[in-house]
């Protein structure tokens, strides 16, 4: 066998090459084709396998569906099958791990350097996932004007603080996200998220706090006997078309709880304006239901947890980033367009009106101060 790794040639007897289906090394016999006058014959399957790194792609795909590196050899072929896996076939635990590291690092680099200028994003959801006691990853997912969903970025940090979130937002802006375009941001309620978003996109940026998180946090602090009545009031407020009436209903609930559950009452009122943003924008009810919670990014984080469940120890943040980035791209394969996508033009119009109103009020305030 002669030539470079990408141009192996078989001369005479049996030699080792790669399977075109899995990329694994196989023993094969090449005696020359009928009518062949050339001494050496180029194997197309070998050239294709090496050029496309089939075994690396196979390894990454198997690990994303929770096949461990120890079991990768069995997933490629049957242990007692007709095609054995000899030593040096490239199916060992360490070889599989090296392939996954190389391919996942390359994919993450390409993703985190891709431009966002071509995406007409109307909605951005930001949330964090804790990988271990001292490491958290913060991710962003966007929804464009057609209702298509896009994983946008990912950063690591020790906590979900304003600095970590700001690093993610700075990356998005550097890659082409225009901070002057009005958008709706949906978060789980973290003050650090709101602070970083308003610092970059303006203090009047439309932010919607996840109503599901809010209701869950309130109910977890109350006895079960009160859950049904409190949940009913919150659901009634979320479904109202009038933001003022919804706010009064929530304030009445906080007032009733203030005597016996003062802390819970204060929690209900905290961030009240951001809880009703989609209602204040007067969006259609179907669209409000889709945008009043962080379900989109929560589903992505669920995929990250599933893909990473075999990892027992994170040696470094870079390792967690690679795995989470690969998992987010895996989640993208199952993305469906937003159910209420036909109402997205109404969201754009509402955001533009809100932005114009805020700008007008700011100019009037400046004029009054100058006078």
Characterise this structure.
It is a single chain. By secondary structure, the protein is an alpha/beta fold. The protein folds into two domains: 5-111, no CATH class; 119-357, no CATH class. It has 16 helices and nine strands. The protein has helices at residues 44-52, 54-64, 72-76, 93-112, 162-174, 191-201, 211-219, 224-239, 243-257, 262-269, 272-275, 277-280, 285-291, 295-307, 317-332, 344-370; strands spanning 9-10, 15-18, 25-28, 41-42, 121-132, 135-144, 149-157, 184-187, 206-209. The strands form three sheets. A five-stranded mixed beta sheet has the order 7-6-5-8-9, sandwiched between helices. Strands 1-4 form a two-stranded antiparallel ribbon. β6 (135-144) and β7 form a beta hairpin. The protein is globular. The N and C termini lie far apart (88 Å). Mean pLDDT is 81; it is low at 1-13 and 32-39.
Number of helices: 16
Count of folded domains: 2
* Main β-sheet, spatial strand arrangement: 7-6-5-8-9
DSSP E strands, number? 9
Q: What's the overall geometry?
A: globular
CA radius of gyration: 27 Å
The major beta sheet can be summarized as: 5 strands, mixed
Order of helices and strands: EEEEHHHHEEEHEHEHHHHHHHHHH
Mean pLDDT: 81
Distance between the ends: 88 Å
Low-confidence stretches: 1-13, 32-39
Structural class by SSE content: alpha/beta
């Amino acid at each position: 066998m002669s030539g470079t790794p990408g141009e192996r040639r078989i001369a005479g007897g049996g030699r080792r090459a790669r399977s075109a289906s899995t990329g694994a090394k196989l023993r094969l016999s090449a005696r020359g084709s009928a009518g062949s006058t050339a001494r050496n014959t180029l194997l197309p399957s070998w050239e294709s396998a090496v050029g496309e790194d089939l075994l690396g792609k196979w390894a990454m795909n198997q690990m994303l569906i929770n096949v461990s590196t120890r079991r990768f050899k069995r997933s490629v072929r049957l242990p007692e099958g007709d095609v054995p896996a000899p030593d040096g076939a490239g199916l060992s635990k360490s070889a599989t791990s090296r392939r996954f590291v190389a391919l996942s690092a390359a994919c993450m680099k390409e993703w985190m350097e891709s431009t966002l200028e071509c995406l007409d994003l109307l909605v951005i959801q930001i949330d964090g996932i804790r990988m271990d006691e001292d490491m958290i990853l913060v991710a962003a997912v966007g929804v464009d004007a057609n209702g298509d969903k896009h994983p946008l970025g990912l950063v690591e940090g020790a906590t979900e603080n304003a600095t970590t979130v700001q690093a993610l937002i700075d990356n998005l802006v550097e890659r082409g996200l225009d901070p002057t375009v009005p958008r709706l941001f949906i978060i789980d309620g973290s003050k650090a998220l709101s602070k970083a978003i308003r610092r970059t996109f303006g203090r009047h940026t439309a932010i919607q706090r996840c109503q599901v998180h809010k209701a869950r946090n309130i109910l977890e602090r109350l006895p079960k006997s009160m859950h049904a009545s409190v949940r009913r009031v919150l659901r009634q407020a979320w479904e109202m078309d009038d933001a003022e009436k919804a706010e009064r209903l929530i304030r009445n609930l906080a007032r009733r709880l203030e005597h016996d559950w003062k802390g819970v009452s204060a929690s209900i009122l905290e961030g009240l304006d951001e809880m009703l943003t989609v209602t204040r924008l007067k969006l259609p009810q179907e669209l409000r239901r889709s945008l009043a919670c962080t379900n989109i990014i929560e589903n992505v984080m669920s995929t990250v947890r599933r893909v990473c469940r075999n990892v027992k120890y994170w040696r470094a943040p870079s390792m967690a980033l690679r795995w989470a980035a690969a998992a987010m791209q895996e989640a993208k394969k199952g993305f469906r367009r937003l159910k209420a996508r036909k109402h997205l033009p109404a969201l754009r119009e509402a955001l533009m009106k809100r932005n114009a109103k805020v700008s007008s009020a700011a100019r009037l305030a400046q004029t009054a101060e100058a006078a």
